[in-house]
Amino acid sequence: MFCYQCEQTAKGGCTKVGVCGKKDETAALQDLLLYLSKGLSQVAVAAREQGVEDPAANLFTVKAIFSTLTNVNFDDDRFVALINDCVAKRDALKAKVSGVEFTGPAALVPAADKAGMIAQGKEYGIEKDPELNEDLKSLKQTLTYGLKGVAAYADHAAILGKEDNDLYAKIQELMAATLSTDLTLEQCVEAALECGRQNIRAMELLDDANTSAYGHPEPTEVKLGATKGKAILVSGHDLKDLETLLKQTEGKGINIYTHGEMLPCHAYPELKKYPHLAGHYGTAWQNQQKEFAEFPGAILMTTNCIQKPTTYMDAIFTTGLVGWPGAVHVSNDDFTPVIEKALAMGGFPADTDKSTVMVGFARNAVMSVAGTVIDAVKSGDIRHFFLVGGCDGAKPGRNYYTEFVEKTPADTVVLTLACGKFRFFDKKLGDIGGIPRLLDIGQCNDAYSAVQIALALADAFDCGVNELPLSLVLSWYEQKAVAILLSLLALGIKNIKLGPSLPAFITPNVLNFLVDNYNIAPISTPDEDLKEILG
Ligand code: SF4
Ligand code: SF3
Fold first, then answer.
1. I want to staple 1 with a disulfide (CB 3.0 to 4.6 A). Which of 24, 179, 313, 498 is the partner?
2. Per residue in 431-465, pLDDT tens?
3. 446 lines ligand 2 (CB under 6 A)
4. In angstroms, what is the span from residue 4 Cα to ligand 1's centroid?
5. Which residues carry this modification: Cysteine persulfide (predicted)?
């Protein structure tokens, strides 16, 4: 295997087993599925040119790609099923296309069994990529990883009934483009920026999906810690799964807790109305083995990031695209096994920890006080905004973000989103004239909201986003962060500070390009970076 798609990759790439726990066999199956998804995309592009649109193949394309994102699915049997489904959809679509001779992944016949597929997958890993130029390879991998992020957002939106054929078409075009052997460096850069633009569309679609289903997030106080009684913990990013579980547990005497990226769910009117949505338990994904082991109820993983279950294997359930071999997978939205498990477990014997955090400062909430914010900037009460957000992870350098936020001066405001916020989400930073100094915009899936806030501020001050008193200090881990980064670049946003380490798939030449054109810089120390930003 060779994998370097995430931030925690082993030095030079994971080669024997992933730092995430991904096995060599699983990596081969993922490589095969990704390759075949590119073939399905080629066929979909050709079909579309002949006026044939296949909604099922379109949706499947994003599901297949999303399932190869870091920490989503580790279950080989599920990959075998996805590979077979991919080829069935590809061939059904091919039958409707005339006069095209398909080759490569559009024609590849998968092996009949898992062992054969694993052997086949080993031929389609990055290490087998015939690309001779390292910079081209770097840009194509950046594009592929960005597309994994776009696919994740598109899938989330589709789950809530929001789809866009033009978006699927672009994803498939770009997936097919990653197979091209005659792209120039300039064309690869343009394709990566196009991926960023498509990601904005995907995030917009998701924002529309979330807010039309559950209302606009509103500032909400969330209880940390536990309430006495039976319990289910919901982690991942999927709002619909949470809603379904809340409905199925009504009146059953079970309290529902959010974990990790599900924290912002408490701010949605149509989710917070359930009295048994009791609070938030735990922090970011990389702490789950300790936190889940101590949770006295059932656990439901709705999306990434899952880690190897330890003592709680019989209490953890997966749903949607997420999977771990040995963990019970719930499909068809029937959470009965999760509920029965929670009822059989002890639950919390007593109330604990009464502290709270505030969530719900998404675009609508922030823009509703835009006048106050703008006045505070004009009067000098607010000197600067920082967007400190992105993914969390296990590497030690991530303490930078805690220290950075702690050291931001009292006349500055910190906007945050995604699971990186757990490094500082419970800090009491106070307020500036009633405006909280720490504003939680939401999940990584809500990056669209952050972009809209920045654009609205730029509009109010009649300047470009780069001229605003706003600095982006981002942390990355998986491929949704790659997609968001490409979106920010596509919007022309400069001076981003990125950490804790730069992507292993970025070559020195590509990095130079990013520095020259966007002034991207790796994080240094909180003191140095604050000094540089605030002048
Ligand atoms: Fe390694 Fe990350 Fe790939 Fe897992 S996803 S194998 S940790 S690079
Ligand atoms: Fe986190 Fe996995 Fe990226 Fe959603 S939960 S931000 S890492």
1. 24
2. 999 999 999 999 999 999 999 999 999 999 999 99
3. no
4. 6
5. 391
For residues 254 and 245, what is the distance between their CA atoms, to the nearest angstrom? 11
* Backbone CA torsion sign across 282, 286, 287, 292: positive
- Asked whether 366 and 439 are in contact (CB, 8 A), the reply is yes
Tens of pLDDT along 390-423? Answer: 999 998 889 999 999 999 999 999 999 999 999 9
- In this structure, which residue's CA is closest to atom 2 in ligand 2? 305
Q: What is the DSSP string of 22-77?
A: -BHHHHHHHHHHHHHHHHHHHHHHHHHHTT---HHHHHHHHHHHHTTSTTSB--HH
**Structural domains in the chain plus CATH codes:** 24-213 (1.20.1270.20), 220-344 (3.40.50.2030), 369-534 (3.40.50.2030)
Gap between the Cα atoms of 131 and 181, Å rounded: 7
Q: What is the signed CA dihedral for 365, 366, 371, 375, rounded to 10 degrees?
A: 150
Residue 478, annotated as binding a ligand: yes
Instruction: Look up residue 308 and give its two tokens.
Output: 């190897």
Could you tell me the pTM of the whole model? Answer: 0.98
Q: CA-CA distances (angstroms) from residue 194 to 197, 222, 320, 443?
A: 5, 38, 28, 23
> Residue 22 corresponds to which tokens in the numbers above?
């991904």
d(CA 112, CA 119): 11
Q: How many Cβ atoms from other residues are within 10 Å of residue 361's Cβ?
A: 28
Question: pLDDT tens digit string along 102-126?
Answer: 999 999 999 999 999 999 999 999 9
- End-to-end CA distance of the chain, in Å? 46
E strand map for 97-153: none
ipTM over 0.90: yes
CA distance 178 to 145: 11
Ligand 2 within 6 A of CB of 478: yes
Q: Which two tokens stand for residue 501?
A: 């380490």
CB 153 near ligand 2, within 6 Å: no
Q: Name 148's Cβ contacts closer than 8 Å, sequence gap at least 6.
A: 5, 65, 66, 68, 69, 479, 480, 482, 483
Specify the residue with its C-alpha closest to ligand 1, atom 3.
Answer: 3
Instruction: Say whether 188 counts as a known binding-site residue.
Output: no
73 Cβ below 6 A of ligand 1: no
* Ligand 2 pocket member 260 (CB < 6 A): yes
Atom of ligand 1 nearest to the CA of 18: 6
If you take atom 5 of ligand 2, which residue's CA is the nearest one?
Answer: 305
What DSSP element (H or E) covers 348? none
Residue in 38, 20, 391, 369 with CA at minimum distance from that of residue 237: 391
Of residues 290, 231, 239, 277, the one with CA closest to residue 261: 239
Residue 419 near ligand 2, beta carbon < 6 Å:
yes
